[in-house]
Amino acid sequence: MAILVLSVLVLLLSLYFRLKKRQKNDGLNKFPEGPSHPLLGHLPLMTSTTDVIDVSMQLIRNHGKTVKIRIGPKILPMRTSLLTADSHLTEFILSGNKILKKTENYQFLKHWLRKGLLISDGDYWKRHRKILTPAFHLEVLKEFVQVFESVGDVLIEKLRRCEGTPSCDLHPFVTLCTLDVICETAMGTKMNVQSGKNSHYVQSVKKTCRIIIERSMSTLKLTDTTFWLCRDFYTLKNELKVLHDFTHNVINSKKNNKSIDKNTKRLAFLDLLLKFSQDENILSTDEIREEVDTFMFAGHDTTASGICFTLYCLADHPEVQKQALQEQKDLFGDEKNPVITYPDLQNMKYLEQVIKESCRLYPPVPIIGRYTTEDTEFDGCLIPKYTNIMLFIYGLHRDPDYFPEPEKFKPERFDNFDGSLSYTYIPFSAGSRSCIGQKFAMLEMKSIISKIVRHFEIKPTSPRHEVKLSAETVLKSLNGIKVTLKKRP
Q1: Which residues form the signal peptide (predicted)?
Q2: Residues with Cβ < 8 Å from 2, sequence gap 6 or more?
Q3: What CATH fold (topology level) applies to the domain 116-383+431-487?
Q4: Annotated binding-site residue? 435
Q5: How many Cβ atoms are within 10 Å of 257's Cβ, its own excluded?
Q6: 126, 182, 216, 464: least surrounded by Cβ within 10 Å?
Q7: DSSP labels, 415-473
Q8: Which residues of 65-83 are buried (b: 16+ CB within 10 A; e: fewer)?
Q9: Inter-CA distances, 342 with 148, 188, 419, 438, Å
């Protein structure tokens, strides 16, 4: 027995000194850490999604643009990651082809999206990115303007409920609108969720997103090994069945519908993928479903966040709103319901600056992650293999070195923004893994926001509503995004 105990002690001491030696040679030691719990590291500082933004900003402001985030005791941490708002490190990561793998927390999406473009990597990702790129060609996007407009008209009617009320929470209205848009553009299916139809699908999307977020904040739900012990494991299983069955049914319906005209001018993303697959036999049914599900997930909440925060900024800045309205009048006179075309949206130059400035202050995705699969040298520092690197876009966008008076809402910043500092402003990421749908998102936001500006004067609530930012799958406000809407004469 004594020999066994002694052997275990020797083994533990050997492991300890081996890890200490590795830790000593670890290039991460060159980065500051900031105050942390001696045993739990930074884990107690980020117990909810509302802590993430504030704590990350404090660390960046007080200790440098790149800091260590540690989980576990300092003497022997379980996990050490990097949090960065440094444009040089951000450019190094995003502009190259060595660090393309997403961080481990993206794997919480795998039960829904499987190997979709958002979370896949390696040769599989490269092949699918190449296949999917034509689906976002300019000529394809032009045809979706009609969808943006028709779905936006329904939103205007729903927002009329808020006229004359002291407060209107935009997020529920706008989220249903963008979900209607992505259903029709991604799957070619009118869901009419704004009118209360297909509520089971809407609820499944909401519940699935909630569980994904809560998994990243819960020790018990963190791994699949223990997640099955939680009620949410079985809830997620049921909700995913609803989501997957719906997509499968739409795909099978389109495959079996021989009357579909493949030469129809406006095709949904699903139609295009089916056409590519039939022409080249390059995507299986499961692969198509995974990519359509990815469009559904990534294409509605992000855009809803961008629209809501832009309207919130317009409410706070009447002079900016006045200029945005004047641009609409210059284009369409006093017509509130003009027939909008793609060139019209392109001509909304000032509104585009407004949206870009809003996405600077409130980036729809505030943090993105990368994972090193090999030792990587940057600026004389060795970033070891298996390191999570969190690119803190929210902090990057509020750096006074890149954006003077960073807390102020100034759309004119983008009047002469030449892109020379392209890695200081990345609301849609950048490089080879940048958002494939960013042009789609900008067109949709322009269409919806311009329509609301033409119909309503947007004003702050009294007292002014202060958003409570939460870093979830996208940037949200836990207490809503509330404004006052007044019908324009």
Answers
A1: 1-22
A2: none
A3: Cytochrome p450 (1.10.630)
A4: yes
A5: 8
A6: 464
A7: SS--STTTTT--BTB-GGGS-TTHHHHHHHHHHHHHHHHHHEEEE--SSPPPP-EEESS
A8: bbbbbbbbeeeebeebbbb
A9: 11, 20, 24, 16
